Amino acid sequence: MYDVVLLTLGSERDAPGGCGSGGACCGGAAEADTGKASQTDTDPTSQTDSGKTSQTGGDAEHCATERPRVPVLACADALTMRGARVETVTARSDAEIDAVLARLDGPARPDGLTWPDPDGKTRLVVASASDGQLRAVLRRLVRRYAPAPSRRPADLPGDRTLPDLPPVAVLPLDPARGGTQRDLAAQLGLPRDPAAVAAAVVDGTPRRLDLLRNDAGSVTLDGALLGAADDAGRPLQWRARVEVDDTILTDGDEPLLACAVGNAGGYATLDDVTLLTAPDPADGQVEVAVAVPVVVRSPLGRKRVRLEVRRARGRAVSVLPREGKVPYLDDGVEGELTRKRSWWVEPGAWAVWSS
Predict the structure, then answer these.
(1) N or C: which end of the chain has fewer CB within 10 A?
(2) What is the CA angle 349-354-355, rounded to 5?
(3) CA gap 44, 32 in Å, rounded
(4) pLDDT at 235
(5) pLDDT tier for residue 33 given thresholds of 50, 70 and 90
């Protein structure tokens, strides 16, 4: 039978300066690397973005507290009833997350790389109050298992920079996010009931999904929305060069109201405007859209503004701000873009346990 670790991310209220503060376990924008050194050559996240209000407004992160929440206890009971050996862990720092992830390591390799165990008997459940918390765990998995370019092994697929990450189960802690305000678990149709999550962990199969990595050292599971609004809710104009593979959606000389980078559909719409038409987290591509205000004239010569949405799909996208700071949401985490940011697809790199 399986050993199952139920991992909850602790709040900065429990440990000032720990996870949810500098460690950003509660989904905050800061992503300081306080844990085990990565296999990559450099750590580009030493300079982090600060958060500002984005067009969507975002949610306050619902961080876990010292006492396990009811869904965690219910899931642990359901797993135990199915014969699993269960341990509940609350991590308040990247180092504490890494200590849990180390249980997913495989046997030592001749090349010395830390690699996930494809036949491991330990399964991980992430009790997630937000997509940002789930992303925090996946980010540490990438840091643990992604080899440096100089140490790229021959058995790594040509379209990937990291091996297949161990599957994780998602235990959503916020039932409201499964309704009109859909989180990633709801978009993927994953179970939300603790007993159903336990069943997927013990009897389910891995469902492999695409992962977006970026050159800031982080990852994106759902998507990102770039843009901002004023105090009255009116979108503010900004400029950036946006490229998807060889397609230029805008060269940076015209104003933008929004840019959506979609692996899944969390940012498919903005108010009543459809930005992304068919984001698919398992098709090996990222869908990108920009919303451009265009002035047109009526037959009588009157001017009006029409919103033009341009879209493209590909393996990689880059956004280069032309002036100032561009606020954004990435998996619900707020930040500001001040320099070029690139995302690229890692096809099928991560997986969830699914019934």
Answers:
(1) N
(2) 155
(3) 10
(4) 85
(5) very low
